[in-house]
Amino acid sequence: MKVRSALTALALVVAPGVAVLGTASDAFAVTKISQATATQMFRSAGITWSSSGNCSDRNNATCTSFDQLNLATAQGAQTLKGASGCALNITGGTETGHASGTYSHWNGYKLDYGKNTCVTSYIKNNFTYIGLRGDGYPQWQSGSGNVYADEGSHWDALYYNCGGC
């Protein structure tokens, strides 16, 4: 069976609303999920979300969208919620208006979380401080390699993987 055929078959059994993107030459395949799949995953984990525009349109910067979110990113949020036991509210997803780059919000690798004492304490007490990001924000890295930057009003979380899900 060709790799693309195998990936397509996998996409059909992973979950409804999930698509596996990649080619035989890719080092790895990134699994993208839909808005509906992400909200179901977050709801089942007790994770909330909000937007200043009260919307989910990926092309509107005032919305909070999960369209084209990486499955590992959604799972990383679930892992953080389960491990910390903290209230977790997502305030930024894949919508336009964030910085560009390979490991960006738009490409499905990042989520923003509203700050609260519980989440801040958990990150600072359980992850390793790794210094300032290029834009001056302090960063902490989890044991699995994911990076959490304190951007003042919120946490910017970069998920390379699901965080040990």
Instruction: Give the DSSP E fraction (strand runs of 2 or more residues).
Output: 15-25%
Largest sheet: 7 strands, mixed
Number of strands: 10
Task: Choose one word for the global shape.
Answer: globular
Radius of gyration, taken over Cα atoms and rounded to an integer in Å: 16 Å
Name the poorly predicted regions: 1-27
Strand order in the largest sheet: 3-5-6-10-9-8-7
Order of helices and strands, N to C? Answer: HEEHEEHEEHEEEE
| Structural class estimated from helices and strands | alpha+beta
Indicate the percent of residues in helices. Answer: 25-40%
Distance between the termini: 29 Å
Average pLDDT number: 87
Number of helices: 4
Explain the overall architecture:
This protein has 165 residues and is α+β, with helices and mostly antiparallel strands. 28% of the residues lie in helices and 24% in strands. It contains four helices and ten strands; from the N terminus they run H-E-E-H-E-E-H-E-E-H-E-E-E-E. Mean pLDDT is 87; it is low at 1-27.
